[in-house]
Amino acid sequence: MKKLLLFALAFVYNINLFAQKTDTLSITLEQVQYAYPIKYFKIQIEGQDLRMAYMDVQPSAEANGRTVTLFHGKNFGGYYWTNVIKVLSANGYRVIIPDQIGFGKSSKAFIHYSFHQMAKWNSQLLDSLKINKSIILGHSMGGMLATRFALLFPEKTEKLVLENPIGLEDYRAFVPYVNTQQQYQTELKTTAASVKKYYQNSYFTEWRPDYDELVRIAGGVTFSADYPRWAKVAALTFTMIYEQPVVHEFANLKVPALLLIGKEDKTIVGKGLLSTEDQKKYGQYKLLGKATAAKIPSAKLVEFDNVGHIPHLEKPEEFMKALIGNL
After folding, report:
1. Full set of structural domains in the chain with CATH
2. Which residues of the chain have pLDDT under 70?
3. Cα 199 to the chain's mean position, in Å?
4. Which residue, 64, 67, 123, is CA-closest to 96?
5. What is the pLDDT of residues 184-224, one digit of tens each?
6. pTM higher than 0.85, yes or no?
7. Count of CB atoms situated within 10 Å of the CB of 229
8. Does the chain have fewer CB atoms within 10 Å around its N or its C terminus?
9. pLDDT score at 23
10. Tens of pLDDT along 219-248?
11. For residue 22, what pLDDT is reported?
C-alpha cells in the first residue's frame, strides 16, 4: 500500500513537472509568436540598458499617409492587437505597436515607472521612425498612457482614442493604499488558474475558447524561475497607476478624442481591496464613459452594449466599424 501511494505521488509530481515544462513561458515571451516581426528600440535609464520591443506594420492596401500607434493594457502586450492591426493596415494605415518597458517582450526593469517617462520613450520611438504625428489608441492602462502622451505631445497626436481606459476615477479616493512591497507579495501568489478566473470574472461578459490563449500567455510566465522579477515589475506598475492619475486633466486635452466603451466593464484597479458594497459603487463604465466624454473638449463617445473590458476582442466587428468610421 505504501509503495502504491509513493508511486501515485511520484506520478502526480512528474505530471506537474511535465505541465510546468510545457506551459512555462519566459518573462520576455520568447516562446510567444507575435503576428509581425519584432524590432527593438534601445533605451538607457537609471544606469540600465533596456530594450523596448515593437512592431512596425506597413499598410497592406494603398497607404493613406496616416499612422496609428497602439498602447496595450497592463496585463497584455502587442500580441492581443493582431485583429486591430490587420484591419487598420487593410485600410491604409501604418501601425506601430510597442510593448512598453516592463511588459511583453520588452525589458523587465527595476526602475521608477512613470507615465511621463513612458510617454517620452514612445515619442522618441516615433521620432526614430520619422513619424511626426500619429493617432494614439490606448486600451486599459494604455488609455492612461495615451492620455498622458496627448497631454505632453499634442503636436504629435493627431487623435486620441481610448478603449475602456482605466483611470477614469481617482483610485486614491476610495481604494485602500498598499505599498509596492505589499502588492509584490500579492503578485507572487498569481497562478495560471487565478489568471483565468480573473479574466473570466473581470474582462468578458461571456467566455469563449479563443480567450484561453490570453490565459496561456499571462499564466505561462508564472511557471518561470524568473517570475519574481515579473511580479516585482507588476507591483511597480500597479503603484504607478495608483499614484499617477490622469482623470483630473481630461479638460486640458487639446486634441480630438474618441471614446470606445464597453458598457458592462466594471474594472477597478485594486478591486480586491474593496468591500462588495464599494465594488458596486465604482468602476461602472456605463456611467464613466459619459462622464469622461463630457470632460474632454471635442470628444465623441461610442458605447457597446453587452461588452466588457476589451471590445476589440469581444465584439471585434462592431469595434472595428466604430474605429475606422471615426478616424
Report:
1. 36-325 (3.40.50.1820)
2. 1-22
3. 13
4. 67
5. 999 999 999 999 999 999 999 999 999 999 999 999 999 99
6. yes
7. 15
8. N
9. 82
10. 999 999 999 999 999 999 999 999 999 999
11. 54
Q: What region, left, alpha or beta, does residue 270 occupy, with left being phi > 0 and alpha being psi -120 to 50 degrees?
A: left
Structure confidence at residue 17 (pLDDT): 40
Looking at the chain, how many residues does it have? 327
Q: What is the 3-state secondary structure (H, E, C) of the chain?
A: CHHHHHHHHHHHHHHHHHHHHHHCCCCCCCCCCCCCCCEEEEEEECCEEEEEEEEEECCCCCCCCCEEEEECCCCCCHHHHHHHHHHHHHCCCEEEEECCCCCCCCCCCCCCCCHHHHHHHHHHHHHHCCCCCEEEEEEEHHHHHHHHHHHHCHHHEEEEEEEEECCCCCHHHCCCCCCHHHHHHHHHCCCHHHHHHHHHHHCCCCCCHHHHHHHHHHHHHHHCCCHHHHHHHHHHHHHHHHHCCCHHHHHHCCCCEEEEEECCCCCCCCHHHCCHHHHHHCCCHHHHHHHHHHHCCCEEEEEECCCCCCHHHHCHHHHHHHHHHCC
